Amino acid sequence: MWGGAASPGGGITLRLSDRELRAADRDGYGRNWPLRHRDLDPHYTWLEQFLAVRGQRDGLSVLLDGCYRPASPLTAAEQHMRRALTRHRPQDQLIPSRGFALEPNLDDQNPWPRRASQGAALARAMATGRCRLISGAAVSHVAMGKGGQQAEGVVYRSGSPLRDQLLRAKLVVLCASTIESLRILLHSGPAHRTPGLPDPAGLTGRGLMDHVSVARFFHLPGVASAEATAPLSGAESFFIPHNGGHSTAAAAAGGAPLRGYGLWGGAQRLGVPAPLRRVGPGAIGFLVGHGEVLSHPDNRVQLDPIHHDHCGLPVPMIRCRWRSAEYALLHSMAHHMDEVVRVSGGVTMGLPELVRMPGIAGLVRAVEARHRHGAPPGYYIHEVGGAPMGCSPQDSVLDSWNRHWHCPNLLVTDGACWVSSGWQSPTLTAMALTRRACQAAARRLGHGGAC
Fold first, then answer.
1. CB neighbours (10 Å) of residue 9?
2. Count of domains observed in the chain
3. Is the residue at 225 inside a domain?
4. Whole-prediction pTM value?
């Protein structure tokens, strides 16, 4: 069945490190992941090579190096910012971003870019001749066998009129994107069918997370005034990583941020025509901070008892809000971005003050004012959690190989399996976890054993 988030969004591909995977050891909040970076490293490396990720080895403890094609160059304005930070804020290391550049596919026979699934993983799968896509269909639930201990497949709805069909499988892999995978898991439970997918601890859907984010635009007067505009992409941009690492007590008191964040940005990459500029010569740029959100059981996904979608399936009902740690993180990120711009000789400004926007300036100002101190949950579309991995069925939904504790031939490998959100973009890690879990399941099946 075809669905889910199969491309790395904005094209930024970052690894999680043990600072994120074992964060509870450091600050005492929540639980650790049941694995370490070394368990994901070979899968990260394979994916970075397969996807032709660009970047450089910067040797930073807060952002682990990978296996990259040469990094895209910084613009003259970004080099100016890096020099200014080196002089005035040496703790801030501005590096070329890591991800996809706006370039053709290395495979001349495929017109899709590598950052799209059609240009990479999906194309490879279809080429095997063993992959079939079922479109115009929606998965209802995981079908359990008579004993209620194994999945026998998935039930999906399709056709006109709609009807349920069972797709049998020895192994079921849910990677439909976080909210949809949770919807399928919840709709597979004993509250909706017999036998149902067990959830004795009632953990499924709890602990939903996103990334907390805030943005700034700025002008660098007189910097790179004669330079051409450069492309903007996941690789053609810059990053300033930062790690919080402050105490739980400080975060609970609304003080310093508990966990880490990163600042993604670009300068001299926004191609604003001269007639639309409201500022004088110099580079226009942006900064976006995105940080780790803490897992909280009341941030959750449930099934709506009243509303159903066009297929007659109950829609997800989401309850999620920021708490003191997230507000502290937003404050820290906003201050950090203002300082980066200040020491670079720039001025932080609203977008309508930088660019003429006939007819929509008021609307843009209203949006900026509403999000000045941070965007709401769901805005960044990095939702994770709700079916976390762990070492025990008492405090997790999945084991360390992404198998459902109560249904071992059911894997959940997308963002739903996250234990803690980290601050890095999640797609590369979801791909690495999926590759690791599926390779292990294939080995078990190949040896004639159960999944």
1. 16
2. 1
3. yes
4. 0.92
